[in-house]
Amino acid sequence: MPTDRRRSALRLPLWILLLVAAALARGADPKFDILQQKLAALHSKPNIIFILADDLGYGELGCYGQKRIKTPHLDRLAAEGTRFTQCYAGSPVCAPSRAVLMTGRHTGHVSVRGNALVPLSTNETTVAELLKAAGYQTGLIGKWGLGETNTPSTPDQRGFDEWLGFLNQNHAHDYYPAQLWRSSVLSEEGLTNSLIFQNQNGARGRYVHDLFTQAATNFIRISKYKPFFLYLAYTIPHANNELKELGMQVPSDAPYSAEDWPQPERNKAAMITRMDRDIGALLAQLKALRIDSNTVVFFSSDNGPHKEGGANAQFFQSSGPLRGIKRDMYEGGIRVPMIARWPGKIPAGVTSDQVWAFWDFLPTAADLAGVKAPRGIDGLSMLPALLGKKQTNQHEFLYWEFHEKGSKQAVRTGDWKAVRLAGAPLELYDLKSDPGETNNVAALRPAVVARVEAYLKTARTESEHWPLKPAPIAEAK
């Protein structure tokens, strides 16, 4: 037992320790439900669960307008909570979006601004470090992508008490991996070795997301006696890019086997519905453990939908009414589903148009935990908006940058959205009347363009890894 956990346990009154020991000895005896109720009453801090899908588009859930892919449990989560229609990921690709989520800094300031293997800076405080210091048990299940084994930025070094999954986002492409990481040590024995996913002759073993769901429910069951933070980072529906046309990996394409769709589309839909089923099991567990009313659940995606592994984002209208997909700075690349539920606290059945972004999660979590967020971040606490109250503290502007095939930037201020593609002239769109970004009005709104240009001069700090670069010459022609 780590020293900090031992000290935390010693601070508990003796009667609680005795009750815990008795409950563990008796197993799941219903008579000991009173223990859970007494322990829950000891703290007012809510549990926090953030479930992150990977490459799930704005329009790929039923509650966001999807007609063909079945997502009943997430639709129910939205019906029992608040569905946000103007929430933004940290980036149009994986690693920087997750870095923004963890640190509260947007891509003009965060250390990870692209998918290159650059670790988080030790000068950045993660939400896990913040919540762990506030007395939370912290766990990560799934995809990390923010530090390799030879860096000081593996999950256990960045605030996570428990974790299981992928360090490298490229390894996370494989849904039947031969190995996973746990506590920064690649298991040769124990947990990973006892759950073989792929043997030496290449035969498939267990689907990795089944393990992730099992690990997540185990973490909740074990951590229920104190406040906990679970970051459940599924890789669904990311494609296995190495498999090209067959890259949408899933054990079965049910319930879509009879559909007259291309096989990759049947698989993709099955992946999303399977994830929805597993999230439903997790939500049912919260109710069974009687901690549902003291648990805040967030669900979102790290960026827009992909066009990889044989799947085409147009088939399911995966971006909904928005323009663009993954890697685009248009709305379809960065606007994502966001559902939040906290029974009795977050209004149920509500749709909110509050504008916010991934860098707001850390200060919001800090507010939930009753602690101060670190200085020097870009995020604002969205707790008032979550609770259905007036959000008086608003962003003057939101900022993104991205560095593939030249550098790209985007700004949102009010209903105005500006995009600059690799040094090209600024594009400007009025999202209120043109959410699909079809009509560039930059020439008609010079004052707004000037304001955005001023923001662009102050929105970022220089980075040796992420300098602003023009488009490659071949593309600029």
Summarize the structure.
The chain is built from 14 helices and 15 strands. It is of the alpha/beta class. The chain folds into three domains: 41 residues, no CATH class; 353 residues, Alkaline Phosphatase, subunit A (3-Layer(aba) Sandwich); 77 residues, Arylsulfatase, C-terminal domain (2-Layer Sandwich), CATH 3.30.1120.
What do these coordinates show?
Strands 1, 2, 3, 4, 5, 6, 7, 8, 9, 10 and 11 form an 11-stranded mixed sheet that branches. The protein has 3 domains: 1-41, no CATH class; 43-395, Alkaline Phosphatase, subunit A; 400-476, 2-Layer Sandwich (Arylsulfatase, C-terminal domain), CATH 3.30.1120. α8 (208-223) packs parallel to α9 (263-288). The chain is an alpha/beta fold and 477 residues long. A hairpin with a 5-residue loop joins β12 and β13 (408-413). Mean pLDDT is 88; it is low at 1-26 and 187-203. 28% of the residues lie in helices and 16% in strands. The chain contains 14 helices and 15 strands.
Descriptive key words:
14 helices, disordered N terminus, 477 residues, Arylsulfatase, C-terminal domain, eleven-stranded mixed β-sheet, Alkaline Phosphatase, subunit A
